[in-house]
Amino acid sequence: MGLEKVVEEVLSSGKRRRDEILAEGEQDYQEVVKAAKDEVEEYRRKREEENHVRIERMREQDLQTAELEVRRLELSMRRDLLEQVQEGAREKLRQLDRQRNETMLRALLAGKDVPGAKVFSAAKDEAIVRSLSRLPYGGHVDCLGGVVIESADGSIREDLTYDALLTERGEELLPVIAGILFGEEG
To answer: Which residue, 129, 112, 133, 132, is CA-closest to 121?
Structure first.
């Protein structure tokens, strides 16, 4: 029976070794599977994070684009409103009654008796300007009203037309007008 015991011992030892190898193989297999799952999970997490960053970046770009468009539209609207205000002022100047126009022309001509200079005006104001000024009348200028004083040689020209004054004052008053129209401080 000694041989049977040896065979049994060898078989038993072989089974134990087989079980150990299978257990080690299973453990290695589980470690490889876990490592693969971890790697896949890390890859998925990174891709998800990258996608989130991309989506946020796109969302931010869309928001900035929309904000720029709103600002552009707002500026366009403001420009249109300011142009309407200026056009309203021009219309009032076109419709000045004779007495008010004469008062304004008198104020513009006050102290403008420069020797050798000429005075120009809108055709509609020629008679009034001739009666108010001692300067020789130089002719007509295309304007809403007011006068232009020019030196004899034409080198100096003072534009006191309503158009020029409106443009000059309009630029100065732009912040005030914007404040009134848009509730801003000017």
So the answer is: 129
36: tokens are 């693969």
| CB contact at 8 A, 171 and 180 | no
Cα–Cα distance measured from residue 61 to residue 186, given in angstroms and rounded to the nearest whole number: 32
Q: Length of the chain in residues, anyone?
A: 186
Q: Which amino acid is at 64?
A: Q
Measured distance CA(113)–CA(133) in Å, rounded:
8
Cα–Cα dist 67/184, whole Å: 20
Q: Evaluate if residue 185 carries a pLDDT over 70.
A: no
Exposure string for 45-70, b = 16+ CB within 10 A, e = fewer = eeeeeeeeeeeeeeeeeeeeeeeeee
| Model-wide pTM > 0.90 | no
Per-residue pLDDT at 42: 92
Between CA 123 and CA 145 the distance in angstroms is: 9
Q: What residue has token string 């080690």?
A: 24
Q: Cβ distance 118 to 138 under 8 Å?
A: yes
Q: Report the phi/psi class of residue 139: left, alpha or beta, with left for phi > 0 and alpha for psi in -120 to 50.
A: left
CA 42, CA 36: separation in Å to the nearest integer?
Answer: 10
